[in-house]
Amino acid sequence: MRVLCPGCGSVAIIGKTNRLSLAHADLYCSCSDPECGHTFVTNLSFSHTLSPSSRTSSAIVSELARALSPVQRQQLQQELNLL
Ligand SMILES: [Zn+2]
Q1: Residues with Cβ within 5 Å of ion ligand 1?
Q2: Domain locations in the chain?
Q3: Which of 16, 32, 35, 67 is the most buried (most CB within 10 A)?
């Protein structure tokens, strides 16, 4: 990922990343142009999902399966065996 200096448009160097959460980080940057010398903080943040995480989907399926009664679980198992 390239960060451009908002002052002059040159490539900036990310010196430090302050991760605030899994979805947000502050990037401490400095412009690579010595004549500019701009240092600044820019944000990196999650926007939206295009395809859900299979880890999340698996966890949801496991939780749902655990919530079923033994009979329902057995029925589900038989249905899955047909796939
Ligand atoms: Zn600059």
Answers
A1: 5, 7-8, 10, 31, 33, 36, 38
A2: 3-45, 53-83
A3: 32
Rounded to the nearest 10°, the torsion over CA 39, 5, 20, 52 is: -170
C-alpha 42/C-alpha 39 separation (Å) is 10
Half-sphere exposure of 38 (CA within 13 A, CB side): 16
Q: What is the H or E stretch that residue 80 is in?
A: helix 70-81
Question: Please, what's the largest Cα pairwise distance for the chain?
Answer: 73
- Alpha carbon of 76 to ligand 1 centroid (Å): 60
Residue 83 has a pLDDT of 82
Q: Which CATH code for domain 3-45?
A: 2.20.25
Reported as a single tens digit per residue, the pLDDT across 13-66 is 999 999 999 999 999 999 999 999 999 999 999 999 999 888 887 888 888 888
